[in-house]
Amino acid sequence: MADQTVPTFSGSPRPVVEASRAMVATSQPLAVQTGIGVLKSGGTAIDAAIAVNAMLSLVEPMSCGIGGDVFAIGWEEAGQRLYGLNASGRSPGSLSRHWFLNQGHKYIPSRGPLSWSVPGCVDGWFALHERFGRTPMRQLLRPTIEAAVSGFSLTPVITRMWQAAAERLAQDPGAAAVFLPNGRAPESGDVFRNPRLAETLAQLAKDGNDVFYRGPIAEQLVAFSNNIGGFFSLADFADHVSTWVDPISVLYRGYDVWQLPPNTQGLALLQMLKILEPFDIANMEHSSAEYLHLLIEAKKLAYEDRARFYADPDFYDVPIEALLSDDYAARLRDRIDPQRAASELLLEDPRLIGGDTVYLTVVDEEGNAVSFIQSIFNDFGSGIVPPGLGFAIQNRGSLFHLDSEHANAFVPNKRPFHTIMPGFVTQSGRSVFSFGVMGGDMQPQGQLQVLLNRIEFGMDPQLAGEALRFRHDGSSTPVGHHMNDGGVVRLEPGFPETVLDELCAKGHRVETSSDGFGGYQGIWIDSNTKVLYGGSEPRKDGLLTLKRLSFGTCDAAISRVSITISPLKARHFNNRLPSTKPPIQMMTIAECVNRYPRRLMAPFFADTTIWPPWSLLRTR
């Protein structure tokens, strides 16, 4: 990649963030601060991940929350091994496929109570905590409870997502009461409070997992479901259980790339890597039509299998070994025409394109790591918020097929096909990369592009996420849509016009789009030096990370704290700076102290709750 200029999302990419002992990476500054606080007090990577996820459920409620599901891949440093957790929920036991068909449904509705499956998030938290936690759950939830009561300031990207859902939120009284204060979606910089969520989390902190699945919260959810035409029962909640699973992998260029098995779609990434392995990708021009065409065609092939085979393994024997075999990958590879886009596949499923999700990854001081992803699927999930609880219920149940012969057919108490997929990479039995890309149907495509940027083109973990992306929409889906028109290739603005022309010449339908390309975070672990290299999505609200060299000495830590300012906020503050001052981009807090007057920067630090507080900052 040395002689290549790679087009990037932000024009001037952020530098990769380095740390020597521990790191937290996610998409919102207050959530990262929360995770750092847990690590600082001696918590494990799992402790920090739970605390971060809880905070994200407050500050980014359209994407995640305790009404959704969790998947995690963890690295246990002491045992030098990976573990996986599937904390996704199941369909209501009293609902049948025939009920949908008798009501005239060709597909399960994507919103409302018919789209519900049992939320698995809370059980996932407690399962992870019981096995790997050290800090009491009440301490992990306390920062979110306090912030929900006192309020927090909205960041720009989250604000835009919130406002885009305002019309839908207004259709449900519970959603409007919680998420449309004063009858409108909050503005960027507004202070938002969610005391109902604080009360719910306080119950979990006090009484544990049972309060959600066998106690008052379960009773409230079931009663509410009965009132609005849902099918939840107390048995659905009491019988829920998370599942420890063995991650699956393929070897690619000397790296073992790991995913969780179905019902997640992580297998699609592994299939694409198997298809692509013999190609000389490193010597292709990055972002060229040749390179993009190859990835798009590999994606189409893997997604056809995704549409046919990915389902709950308790109900269907997913042929993982066959799908990842060398012989089958070779047969798929032979179907790629380097000059022509394949088109024999049918309709686009919008429910798999725009999933809202949060991703986070943590590496602790002992070397343990977790790749953690959590979601309520579409923005604000089903769009339904039960009265008094402060969170939306997911709409994952909409991802079943209504054909009884299909692998992903609706069956009572079955887990639906799932889009969220944490990623992990090891090399020679040592942890290397904990990463993920949010965004429904985009996730396998996004993970593929980030991995190839890192492994094939040698980009650092930040640039690997900043490089412009493509997204192919229109593949066949596990809910019954089929492709026969080749779908649509969507490119982020910034690709050369010649690339668009060359893709069109190969038969692709190409559009430029500014949304839907996912959100990435990743931590690369140097297995020799143990230095951590963090990357965070510029398409989101940013990352704060701390090199834990000296928590006790503020001066020693300050110069090793980096902040990422969102483009909108940077423009806001740059407009207030004297013309003699350099513009704000990416810098350490110590650099901010030296460059900018306190009166200009103090509002920024107060607004984004950067740790440590401004009053503690000292320069040498």
Silhouette: globular
What is the residue-mean pLDDT, rounded to a whole number? Answer: 86
Which sheet architecture does the biggest sheet show?
Answer: 7 strands, antiparallel
Q: What is the CA-based Rg, rounded? A: 23 Å
Q: In total, how many beta strands?
A: 21
Q: Name the strands of the widest sheet in spatial order.
A: 1-18-17-13-12-9-8
Which structural category fits the helices and strands?
Answer: alpha+beta
Distance between the termini: 39 Å
Instruction: State the low-pLDDT regions, or none.
Output: 345-351, 543-573, 576-620
Helical fraction equals 25-40%
Number of helices: 23
> How large is the share of residues in beta strands?
15-25%
Can you characterise this structure?
The chain is α+β, with helices and mostly antiparallel strands and 620 residues long. 35% of the residues lie in helices and 16% in strands. It is built from 23 helices and 21 strands. The relative contact order is 0.18.
